[in-house]
Design a protein that fits this description.
With about 500 residues, the chain is an alpha+beta fold. It has 17 helices and 27 strands. The chain has a 5-stranded mixed β-sheet. Strands 24-23-25-20-26 form a 5-stranded mixed β-sheet. The protein has a 4-stranded antiparallel β-sheet with strand order 1-6-4-5.
Length: about 500
C-alpha cells in the first residue's frame, strides 16, 4: 500500500544551480484561493524550466526541509540562505490538490489517506470515449430551466454509451477537453455534432460533483478515473536473456510525446522472434512512456537507455500503442496516470507462474487430469484458413465503434469449423496484428484485406478471461516452442519462411 501511495503522489526532485547575480528562473508565490507555495513566471530557457519545473507546481521541500506549512517569507529565506545551489521537492497542481482532498500527509514518506481518523475513499469523475458510427450513441441530454448544467438521460441499456461508462443523470463537464459547464442545451448539442468522429467526455455523478464543489475544487481530468477508457496502456515486466531483451529503442524526432512537449518520442522496434520482448507482448512502434515507474517524456535517447540499464537484468516498461496514445492525447492526460492509478504495484506473473495462480473468484479445485490439463487449458488457438467459394464460414460479432470482437455462427463442416474456430471465441490477432483494442470496422477491414487466406489467434472466453485476470498478455508465444505444430489449419499448405534481415541503425542502442 505504501509503495502504491508513493507512486500516486510521487514528488519530483529538482536540483538547481544559478550563476552568481542571477536567479533560478521562476517566482515563488502564494495566491488567494490557492493552497501551498506555487511556482510561477518561469523564464523560458532558465534553470528551473530546463530542469522540468512547471507553472503551478507546489514546492514541498527546500534542501530536505518540508515547507508546505511555512510562511512565504520563511520559504524565501530558506532558498536564499542556500546560495547558488538548491534542491527542491515539487509536485504538480492536480496531484497536490488531490492529496489534500484525500487527506494524504505529503510530509510523510509513507502517507496514508485519512478522513476523521479512518481511511478515506476517493470520489472520481470519469473519462468516457466514444467513436461515431452509423448508429446512435444511445443517450440523450437534458437541462432544466433555472438549473445550471447539462445531464445524461435515456442511456440505452447495452448501448454504446452505457458500455463506455455513461449513466443516467451524469453531469457533462467537458467535451474533447473543452468545458461545457456554462453552456446551454443547444450549445452542447452543437458541440457534440461538431466534435468529429472521436469524442472524449468528462462526466461526474451528482454526489461526486457536489463533493468537489463543496470543497471549492474544480473537477478536471486529473481527478477522473481512467477505467472506462477502451484502450489501455500496458505494463510489461521483462527479464534480460542471454542476448539481451531482444528489441531496439528508436528515437523519432518527427513524433512527440504530447503537443506541449518539444521532445522526441521513444519507440520500440525490431523485436526478435522468441526474445523476452516478444514473449512479454511488446509490439513494433509501441511508444515507451516510463521505465520502472520513471516518466521518460522529456528524456533524450541516452537518458532512456541509461534508465533501462540501471535495472540490471530486469525492467518494467509502461507502453502505449498508437490508438491508446492518440486517445490519451485527446483526453489531455498522460498515460502515467494509468501507472499511478493501477490497482496493485505487484509485478504481473509470467505465464508459467500465472497458470498455477487462481483467477479472481476461482475456487482452487483442480480439473480432472491434474496440472497438465489446467496448463493446456490456458492457451489460445492459432487458426489458419484458406477461403473457399462459400467463404470462411463464420461471422464476426461486435458493436460498431467499440473494441472487442468474437466469433459466432460457425458453419459446421466449413472452413472455420475445420480450422478449430468455435462460437464465442475471442479474436486476439488477425494475421499477427493485435486487435484487442480495435473496433469492429477495423477488424472487418483487416480480414477483408487478407485475401484468400487468414490467420486468427483466438481464445475461448473462459481462457481469455483467466489469462487477463492473471495479468498475462495473450500472444501466440503462449503456445510455446511447439506453436508451428499447434496451428489449426484446413489443409497442409506450405507457408513462406521468415527471412532474417541485416540491422543497420543510427542512434539506436541494442537493449
Amino acid at each position: 500500500m505504501a509503495h502504491k501511495v508513493m507512486a500516486a503522489y510521487r514528488q519530483r526532485v529538482i536540483a538547481l544551480t544559478k550563476r552568481k547575480g542571477h536567479t533560478f528562473g521562476f517566482m515563488l508565490r502564494v495566491e488567494q484561493g490557492e493552497a501551498g507555495h506555487l511556482v510561477r513566471s518561469l523564464d523560458m530557457g532558465g534553470p528551473a524550466e530546463l530542469a522540468g519545473m512547471k507553472d503551478g507546481d507546489r514546492i514541498l521541500r527546500v534542501n530536505g526541509n518540508f515547507v508546505d506549512g511555512l510562511s512565504h517569507q520563511k520559504v524565501v529565506d530558506l532558498v536564499k540562505q542556500n546560495g547558488v545551489s538548491v534542491t527542491f521537492h515539487v509536485i504538480d497542481n492536480v496531484l497536490y490538490n488531490r492529496a489534500n482532498l484525500e487527506g494524504y500527509d505529503l510530509s510523510d514518506p509513507h502517507p496514508r489517506p485519512v478522513s476523521n481518523g479512518v481511511g478515506a475513499e476517493t470520489r472520481k469523475a470519469k473519462l468516457c470515449y466514444l467513436v461515431k458510427s452509423t448508429g446512435s450513441f444511445g443517450f440523450s441530454i437534458r437541462s432544466l430551466t433555472g438549473e445550471q448544467g447539462v445531464f445524461m438521460t435515456q442511456v440505452t441499456s447495452g448501448g454504446m454509451a452505457e458500455q463506455a461508462g455513461f449513466r443516467d443523470n451524469d453531469r457533462l463537464l467537458e467535451i474533447n477537453r473543452e468545458s461545457v459547464e456554462g453552456a446551454t442545451h443547444e450549445q452542447v448539442v452543437e458541440k457534440i455534432k461538431d466534435a468529429g468522429s472521436h469524442l472524449m467526455f468528462l462526466l461526474a455523478d451528482e454526489d461526486t460533483y457536489r463533493f468537489y464543489l463543496n470543497r471549492g475544487i474544480r473537477v478536471e481530468v486529473g481527478l477522473a478515473t481512467l477505467k472506462h477508457l477502451p484502450h489501455k496502456p500496458r505494463i510489461v515486466h521483462l527479464t534480460r536473456g542471454p542476448e539481451g531483451y531482444g528489441y531496439r529503442l528508436k528515437e523519432d524526432p518527427k513524433k512527440r510525446a504530447s503537443a506541449s512537449l518539444p521532445h522526441t518520442a521513444h519507440f520500440i522496434t525490431d523485436i526478435d522472434r522468441g526474445s523476452p520482448a516478444e514473449l512479454g507482448g511488446l509490439r513494433d512502434m509501441d511508444r515507451l512512456v516510463a521505465v520502472d515507474g520513471q516518466d521518460v517524456d522529456g528524456d533524450n535517447h541516452e537518458q532512456v537507455v541509461d534508465k533501462i540499464r540501471q535495472g540490471g537484468n530486469k525492467c518494467c516498461l509502461l507502453l502505449v500503442d498508437e490508438d491508446t496514445d492518440n486517445m490519451y492525447k485527446r483526453a489531455g492526460v498522460s498515460p502515467m496516470l494509468f501507472w499511478e492509478d493501477r490497482e496493485s504495484s505487484a509485478s504481473p506473473p509470467s505465464y508459467t507462474e500465472a497458470i498455477h495462480l487462481p483467477a479472481p473468484g476461482y475456487s482452487g479445485a483442480m480439473a480432472v487430469g491434474g496440472e497438465e490439463e489446467e496448463h493446456d487449458e490456458l492457451k489460445p488457438k492459432l487458426c489458419w484458413m484458406q477461403k473457399n467459394p462459400e467463404g470462411y464460414g463464420f461471422h464476426l460479432n461486435g458493436i460498431q465503434g467499440l473494441c472487442g470482437q468474437h466469433i459466432k455462427e460457425v458453419v459446421r463442416g466449413g472452413v472455420a469449423d475445420r480450422a478449430g474456430l468455435e462460437n464465442g471465441d475471442i479474436v486476439v490477432e488477425v494475421n499477427t496484428v493485435n486487435v484487442e483494442n480495435s473496433t469492429h470496422e477495423q477488424v472487418v477491414d483487416l480480414i477483408r484485406r487478407s485475401g484468400s487466406s487468414l490467420e486468427l489467434l483466438v481464445a475461448r472466453k473462459i481462457v481469455y478471461d483467466k489469462l487477463k485476470a492473471k495479468g498475462v498478455a495473450v500472444t501466440a508465444m503462449l503456445l510455446g516452442p511447439r506453436s508451428a505444430a499447434q496451428v489449426h489449419t484446413t489443409a497442409m499448405v506450405e507457408r513462406p519462411a521468415v527471412q532474417t534481415r541485416e540491422r543497420f541503425h543510427l542512434r539506436k542502442v541494442w537493449m
